[in-house]
Amino acid sequence: MTAPTTGDGGQARAAHRLYDANGNPATDRPWIFRTYAGHSSAAASNELYRKNLAAGQTGLSVAFDLPTQTGYSSDHPLALPEVGKVGVPINTIDDMHQLFEGIPLAEMNTSMTINATAMWLLALYIGVARERGEDVRKLQGTTQNDIIKEYLARGTYIFPPEASLRLIAEMYEFCLDELPKWNASNICSYHLQEAGATPVQELAFALANAIGVLDTIRERGKVPPARFPEIVGRISFFVNSGIRFIEEMCKMRAFVELWDEITQERYGVTDPKQRLFRYGVQVNSLGLTEQQPENNAWRILIEALGVTLSRKARCRALQLPAWNEALSLPRPWDQQWSLRLQQILAYETDLLEYPDIFDGSVVIESKVNELKQQAREEIARIEAMGGIRAAVESGYLKSQLVRSMSERVSRINSGELVIVGVNRWTEGLPSPLLTGEDGGIFKVNEAETRRTLEALAAVKAKRDPQAVAEALADLEDAARTGRNMMEPSIRCALARVTTGEWADTLRRVFGEYRPPTGVEGQRLFVDGGRVAEVRERAEAFVRRTGHRPRIVVGKPGLDGHSNGAEVIAVAARHCGFDVVYSGIRLTPEEIVQSAVEEAADVVGLSILSGSHLDLTRQVLEGLRAAGAGDIPVIVGGIIPKDDHAALRAMGVRHVFTPADFDLADVMRRIMDVVEDQAGVGAR
Description:
Elements: E1 4-6, E2 12-14, E3 32-34, E4 36-37, H1 42-54, E5 60-63, H2 66-70, H3 93-99, E6 109-113, H4 118-132, E7 140-143, H5 147-154, H6 161-178, E8 182-183, E9 186-188, H7 190-194, H8 199-220, H9 228-233, E10 236-241, H10 245-265, E11 279-283, H11 296-305, E12 317-319, H12 332-348, H13 362-385, H14 388-393, H15 396-414, H16 446-462, H17 465-481, H18 486-494, H19 499-510, H20 529-545, E13 550-554, H21 563-574, E14 578-581, H22 588-597, E15 602-606, H23 612-625, E16 633-636, H24 644-650, E17 654-656, H25 663-678
Parallel strand pairs: 3-12, 4-5, 5-6, 6-7, 7-8, 9-10, 10-11, 11-12, 13-14, 13-15, 15-16, 16-17
Antiparallel strand pairs: 1-2
């Protein structure tokens, strides 16, 4: 134990404790406690937010539904199956008023997980504050607004990279004076890890992303050079914390040191406060399991330690998934359980009373330096390609993530990567957490969808059509002429323009983007007897039918989580199939057309948004209408067991969930379907 020392006030001070400026023992302030929440309707989400705040949550993290994220109003045909499924639907400023009813905006720290339509949602938020008479300059929070990771991992992009980066830059330029406490974007490496990124890739891709945003803003020349450090100081990050505690904690320390290095050397920022690596966290959801889901509670706790124990790299905001997120959306009780974990960690332990407990560790220092060096090398490769935008457009970053995910899945299948309850110790007692009346999962109330659609129709009926037309014309003019689009967007918000109308206006100007899938050239490292058997059956199928078994892998609806679809596409090609995979956000009609034109032997649908019943029904009906009702359909995704029977009753041959991690077995079962439909045996 370090001997006490005497401070200026004559008090004995222990070197291992924290002290305030007056030499008194102090406790570090806790991070912001958040839960990522939003569902069904603005009214239902508002009720949930107020309950969470009353339970001790200290900030809001708003989850928006997929139509809102991808720029569609709730009454659009593409939107209808998805309304309120994975977040709150926001169509107009009146929905935003409802969402924050009874919550003072100027006193709240609000995080909005929104990207392609981030400018629009911020405009709505500002519009609410203006109509309430609140001081807009006091608004504090974050719009995620990281379009690069959307191209790579999450999939809720709309516009091409150049236009998307312009939208981000204009938000920074607007917020510099109008919303000085607002983070206009949040460099989000969270989804990169969910898509398979290694710690080095998470470091390098996120930092290269931040460099790309800052370089874009600097090159536009709209911010005076003397004020550019203020822009740098508003860059924040949203990161992931996985189960490998030591490595993840070292990754965070590496982030802190690399960001200080980049901001000082590349951008000449001299104020240490403006060089701070400011970050929030959601811990890893990729590792949460459907099997023995109670184990997820311990995974979440361990992952939270990786971003709280090291004071120098401690997050400033934390949101935790719930134990049952591999099964469905969490219920309010599940979110409360995760919130209580944070509160116990912050208030019952002595975590916040000490300086960084890892300083001086040779092991930690060595690992941090290793990660930093490898990240610098990867950033240099991206810079040599022309920067982050070029690395996205070439498909390099996406292909690297698909490769990393394929390698991870291969290691799970081989048993090299142990997942308790999945590939080791798989026998367990039934979970009592799943025995309640609701089966331990959240179900969306369909009545709330009708409520959303009725509210949208009412706003359209009472608004001033001329004001709407003039506001949209002003927005289009700003987009075409290069004017900042924030004030025109706020004007649209105040005129009761809808989310779809705002996005469609910019679609006309900028167009839409379809990035590379990253699947080409990838392979799985799952060789062995069972994979060889499927390959032999595929070759026998060729001899008997004259063509390879052909699978159309389809991602219907607006969900952009593509990991499952990509892994199946890679696995099928590895097993001898011809694979047709056109990426994400396809309409059922497009999938049907592809299946017919490619003469598919099987259609595989990947759906994680909770819309599996509606979307699968549309695909099956489309196949029958096209005279292709004999093409078998399989479905995979986060699908509650209660819905399996309904899908099979529709005609679905197999339903796969995250519990079906054994790719050799999955491909064997798909081959069974193909052979059965073609009337040919394996031998």
